[in-house]
Structures are given as structure tokens and as C-alpha cells.
From TrEMBL:
Transmembrane segments: 21-40, 52-71, 92-119, 125-149, 156-179, 191-217, 238-258, 290-311, 332-350, 356-377, 397-418
Organism per entry: Shewanella pneumatophori
Keywords: Membrane, Transmembrane, Transmembrane helix
Highest taxon of the lineage: Bacteria
Protein name (database record): Nramp family divalent metal transporter
Length: 420
């Protein structure tokens, strides 16, 4: 019996190989379950109840073709997305790299400050100092541990956060309702809330440039073990579905525990972290507060590490392809260092105001999303792929619906900014 037949005959071996092949998709989920979920989804539930649940699911569906491009292109060609952009023309890669540079600094600042805010629950230091420590720790993990450590660490942290949040929501469903009999939820479909809606959708489930990270992580995974096209697509779909469902779970937590209480999330990073942990401890018991805080901190910390790694890899690869230089570990480490330095400068500028910083980052992500989405769609229907690997009619229709949605809301937001 050959090795392939033995594997097919042994379901446990199949399951083991499938689990070990999971990695890039889960890293993508770790990058997503940060500000978009813990902040935007929970805040949407706290302020508007269940009204935006369908919007979150719709956004995840409409963005799916653009995120899937990373795994599908790499699985089909063995190349990363940036190499695909370059095949379309040098200008496409230059546009991606320019916008990616701006997004990289802003996103790093946002997730690092959120991590530091969580850390204030345990360490009595200023949020700026803690942000510096978070960035330094992330650099150490990435420089000395690289992909293998990031892959293993993320699986454990994501499992812990998922279980904790599911338990909290299950308990919240059985808790007494906070709503008064005559309470009427405010509608999110008001002109004043356009900025919030755009910010929520900007990082839902994550910035679209994450598709390029997924592409590079898949190549790194293939260096450790063989990954078939089917395994790569299963991994991506698993991670993407997990982010979509957990977004609704976080909204449920805000809706069940905070909606109708009269309390709103504070713009202060320290106070926001305290409020977020209180959401869990109200339904799981005050004695679980530190455990919940630790899990939430580890989740956001893994997001920070993942974001720094993903943006650094794409910036380094973009530079490498544009300048026709060889691969360089030293250059990658320098990009990581520069990203952390510029991110820290933005954190110092916002002076601990977490929600304004995150709203700025999410809006920026939404405005650049249109370009990243178009680049991915153009690549997935191009002759760079074999006909069987290109997007079919269903994915093309979904892509065009997604592009119309993105362009329409971007135009609406610009008009809102001008007229408000």
C-alpha cells in the first residue's frame, strides 16, 4: 500500500494532516479579530442592538471574492499576489505598495494601542509606554521566532478567545434583559452615523490587503510542509467563515450585555479596555475578570504581531520586486522596525484616545479598499491564471456587487464629510 492510499484509509491521519495544514487562514482570522470585532462589532451591538447583524454578514459576503484571491491565486500558481500584480503591470504593484505603506503604519498604530489598552488592566504604566513594550515584544517574537512560532501561537490563542466568547454569549442569553418594556433602540440609519458605519465596514472582517498576507503566509507554510490546492482553499474558507461568525458573536455580546444600559464606550483606551472586560465578567462572574482580561490581551497581542508580520512581508516583497533585488532577512527586519517606529509616532500623536485612532484607521482602510479589491478582481480574471483557476460567473457577479457596494459607500462617505 503506498503512502497516499494509507492516508486515505486512515481518517485520523487525514484529520491530523488537515489540521496541520491550517495556518494562513487562521492567521488571517487572528488579524481580523482585533479592532473590527472586539471594538466595532461589540460597539455596534451595544449602541444599536441586533440591527447591524445582517450588515456585518453582508459585508463579509460581498468582500469574500477579494479576500479569496490570495489563497486561490497562490494555490494555483505557486506565486504570491504581489508577483501577480507585477505581471499585470509595474504600475499596479506601485499603487499597491504605496497604499499598503500608508495602511501599514496606521493599522500597526491602531492594534498596538488597543493591545496596550488591554495591558493597562494588569500593568500600571502609561498607555504610550505600554504600546512601546508591545511593539518591542512583537519585534522579538517575529525576528527570532518567524512564521513557525507565529503559526503555533495563533492556533492556541484563537481557540481560547473563541471558547471564552462563546461561553460569555451563551450565558448572556440566559441573563435578565436590560431593556425597559418601552425602550426603543436608536436607528443606525441616520445621517449622523455614516462615519461609524463606514468605519465598522472598513475593517470588516479585515483590510483587503490582508489577502496579500495570506498569499505570502501560504508560501511560508509550503516551505514547512506540502499544502495542496484543496487544503489551501479549505484553510482560507475555514478562517474566513470563523471571522464572519465571530463578528456576529461579538455583536451579540454587546447587544445582550450593554445595549439599553445607557452606557457608551469611552474614547479613552484605558477606560474602553475596562468596559470591554466588564462585558464578559458581568455574565461570567467577577472572579473571571483577570482570566478574561488575559485572554483578550493575548488575542489583541497576537493581532498586533500578525499585523506587523503581514504588512512587513508585503512591503518587503513589494520593494524586492520593484527594485529587482534578492530576498533579504535583514531588510525584512528593518521594515518591521521602521513600521513600529512610525506606528509609535501616531500613537503618541493621539495621546491615548483609542476610539478616535481606530475610527481613523478603519475609515482609511475603507477608502483604500476599493483599489485593493479592484486589483484582486482584475488578477483573478486575467490570463495569468489557467481558465479553470479564474473566477467563474458566480464569483464575477459577486465581485461586481462588492465593487458597487464599496464605491457607493466611499462616495457617500466623501459627501458626508463635505456636508457635515
Amino acid at each position: 500500500m503506498n503512502q497516499q492510499s494509507a492516508t486515505l484509509a486512515n481518517p485520523k491521519m487525514n484529520l491530523s494532516r488537515l489540521f496541520s495544514s491550517i495556518g494562513p487562514g487562521l492567521l488571517m482570522a487572528a488579524a481580523a479579530i482585533g479592532a473590527s470585532h472586539l471594538v466595532a462589532s461589540t460597539r455596534a451591538g451595544a449602541e444599536f442592538g441586533w440591527q447591524l447583524a445582517w450588515v456585518i454578514l453582508a459585508v463579509n459576503l460581498l468582500k469574500y471574492p477579494f479576500f479569496a484571491a490570495g489563497a486561490r491565486y497562490t494555490a494555483a500558481t505557486g506565486e504570491n499576489l504581489l508577483q501577480g500584480y507585477l505581471k499585470q503591470g509595474r504600475k499596479y504593484l506601485m499603487v499597491f505598495t504605496l497604499l499598503n505603506s500608508i495602511a501599514a503604519v496606521a493599522s500597526t498604530a491602531g492594534v498596538a494601542m488597543l493591545t496596550a489598552a488591554m495591558l493597562t488592566q494588569f500593568v500600571p504604566l502609561a498607555i504610550d509606554v505600554l504600546a512601546l513594550l508591545v511593539l518591542l515584544s512583537s519585534l522579538i517574537i517575529l525576528i527570532f521566532g518567524h512564521y513557525a512560532l507565529l503559526d503555533k501561537m495563533t492556533k492556541v490563542i484563537m481557540l481560547a478567545l473563541t471558547l471564552t466568547t462563546l461561553i460569555a454569549v451563551a450565558l448572556a442569553f440566559n441573563a435578565p434583559s436590560l431593556l425597559e418594556p418601552n425602550f426603543v433602540s436608536q436607528s443606525p440609519w441616520q445621517w449622523a452615523y455614516v462615519g461609524f458605519l463606514v468605519a465598522m465596514m472598513g475593517w470588516m472582517p479585515a483590510p483587503i490587503e490582508v489577502s496579500a498576507w495570506n498569499s505570502l503566509w501560504l508560501i511560508e507554510k509550503q516551505k514547512l510542509q506540502p499544502v495542496s490546492k484543496q487544503q489551501a482553499l479549505f484553510d482560507f474558507n475555514f478562517g474566513y467563515l470563523m471571522t464572519a461568525l465571530l463578528a456576529v458573536v461579538f455583536l451579540a455580546l454587546g447587544a445582550l450585555v450593554m445595549h439599553g444600559s445607557g452606557e457608551q464606550f469611552s474614547a479613552s483606551g484605558v477606560k474602553f479596555a475596562n468596559q470591554l472586560i466588564n462585558l464578559y465578567s458581568q455574565v461570567m462572574g467577577s472572579e473571571t475578570r483577570y482570566l478574561i482580561g488575559a485572554v483578550a490581551f493575548l488575542c489583541i497581542f497576537s493581532t498586533t504581531v500578525t499585523v506587523i508580520d503581514g504588512y512587513s512581508r508585503t512591503l518587503n516583497m513589494g520593494w524586492q520586486l520593484l527594485t529587482k533585488q534578492g530576498d533579504s532577512e535583514r531588510r525584512l527586519n528593518l521594515v518591521m522596525l521602521a513600521l513600529c517606529v512610525f506606528g509609535l509616532c501616531i500613537i503618541l500623536f493621539f495621546k491615548g484616545a483609542l476610539l478616535p485612532l481606530l475610527e481613523f484607521v478603519m475609515i482609511l482602510a475603507f477608502m483604500t479598499t476599493v483599489v485593493f479589491a479592484w486589483l484582486n478582481y482584475k488578477l483573478m480574471i486575467s490570463t495569468a491564471l489557467l481558465p479553470a483557476d479564474r473566477y467563474g460567473s458566480a464569483m464575477r457577479v459577486l465581485s461586481w456587487l462588492g465593487l458597487i457596494y464599496l464605491v457607493s459607500f466611499a462616495a457617500l462617505f466623501i459627501y458626508w464629510m463635505i456636508t457635515k
